[in-house]
């Protein structure tokens, strides 16, 4: 098979100067083409990936793309048939950022934006959730024609909450539950208009923004589901006053509770979509066992119909891929990411394509398809490759593969290393999985090393391309990403083993990983640092006062520092009980809360936090640094203006990587090695 690469951006009516300014550096790289930038690795790795989201039109002739423009992303339209690129909506990073864009029909695009809103007096939200808050995040829907005309905000800007004088605009407005393929001028959305917590369902005209209520809210239901025909079928949430999963069937605008007790033991099931008859709903469920399985249930009765796919070791988390009402494949994350194919012919085609791609990537992620699956956007990654987007044509088209965008186009490809799945024993005998990434071209012996725990903490690391990891490896560090107990994907028992273990066995799992690396001869015991964000930042701070004999430094991005304050915040949210119970130890909380241990920090710290972080409040770091200052600790604190929990701005990414590089070089890198006389 040949892989033709054609240029798909040309001058258009916007003019050459506008294209250069707004769509600068639009790289359409042939497979294997790279631009080395080894002299400025921080700049190279901090560049926003050129594409944050790409979605094909129903007929496959066009794509709407969130394209990096400066510090954030704008919206462009690609016409594959005309080899044309057009700017649809420019970014406005001071006021909002684009989250995603989709074709509502062949001629109109709908985009979600995220913006901060200033809370007015009396807007106290649910319970105490907005108390002491001046800003919060909100989502909005924008629609625009593919020629850039007729743009508008879709949700009417003012809705008066019944029974109150307060004018209430739903904070979250971009939850589209059906694109109504058979009704191109409308979409189904859920909005918390009648009730601030529980959403109702509305049919929304994407040209006039008129909305018609389809279903009133149901107490306890947070998410509604529609089948492939756009018919509202089910709702899911939690029973009032408990954390028991609740599901309902929608019939004639009424709701009937489903008996789904067999689907939930430890983890609530996740719904993935409907099969052709509309009565069969795909879900992930543990069925009272240890691991999540892919199952079919009856959409009206909740009856368990069959187990479609499971694995003896790993959870099946999905998502499931459905084409024209038929189950095609399910996404898997075992040691490596992949797909389990129910459609054998398509699976064989996928595997043949994967083997022929340049760079021998390990994984092809399906990003988007047209309506008939004649064109697919695929993202290749793994095996020392930078993620690369392709347009794959098949079916009614002549088979071809077109290279579109490459993530991190200026990174020196020779420095990219593949994360290798590993496993080691904890001190209490538990098997701890993870990923080890080693520098390229350097003997894997006595290396400076980063232990990098993930956030969540109830999530997991995979073999995906991680720019933190690859930047560190490019600078000569070995990186271990432990999926410590409490991580998801490995069954209920492994996840539950992390409950109430913040700063305890979840923490010693990290130390045991470092000890394993030292025993293997990979890590220099005098040059080890721990680095993480969110919960990973918390773990880095705990290591700084619990395990200072093992680590020479710690880096914490947006860390939790005060567990008691976190617990107080959690009480303002639905499902707070389970969240609190996972981390609360009433008798010994202080010994694992960094704010209570400021005087015991014994290694240098780097702490970075954004001042508009809505996941972990900036006060968590501000309070800790005040305590560290009073204790005379060795620390550096960087507060990023307008920074969020995800380093969304390119300037913040670069600032962070440069600070980390300087910090590590001083304590475990070349500078530290020289200082030790080695």
Characterise this structure.
With 678 residues, the protein is α+β, with helices and mostly antiparallel strands. It has a domain at 417-675: Alpha/Beta hydrolase fold, catalytic domain (Rossmann fold). It has 12 helices and 35 strands. The chain has an 8-stranded mixed β-sheet, sandwiched between helices. A hairpin with a 2-residue loop joins strand 2 (62-69) and strand 3. It is globular, with a radius of gyration of 25 Å. The N and C termini lie far apart (52 Å).
Name the features.
alpha+beta, Rossmann fold, four-stranded antiparallel β-sheet
List the helices and strands and how they pair.
Blueprint: H1 16-22, H2 41-46, E1 51-56, E2 62-69, E3 72-79, E4 84-89, E5 96-103, E6 108-118, E7 135-145, E8 152-153, E9 176-178, E10 186-191, E11 200-205, E12 211-215, E13 221-226, E14 232-238, E15 245-251, E16 254-257, E17 270-274, E18 280-285, E19 293-298, E20 304-309, E21 320-323, E22 326-333, E23 337-341, H3 344-356, E24 363-369, E25 375-381, E26 388-393, E27 400-406, E28 420-425, E29 431-437, E30 447-451, H4 467-474, E31 478-482, H5 492-496, H6 505-519, E32 523-533, H7 535-546, E33 553-557, H8 563-570, H9 576-581, E34 605-610, H10 618-631, E35 635-640, H11 650-667, H12 670-675
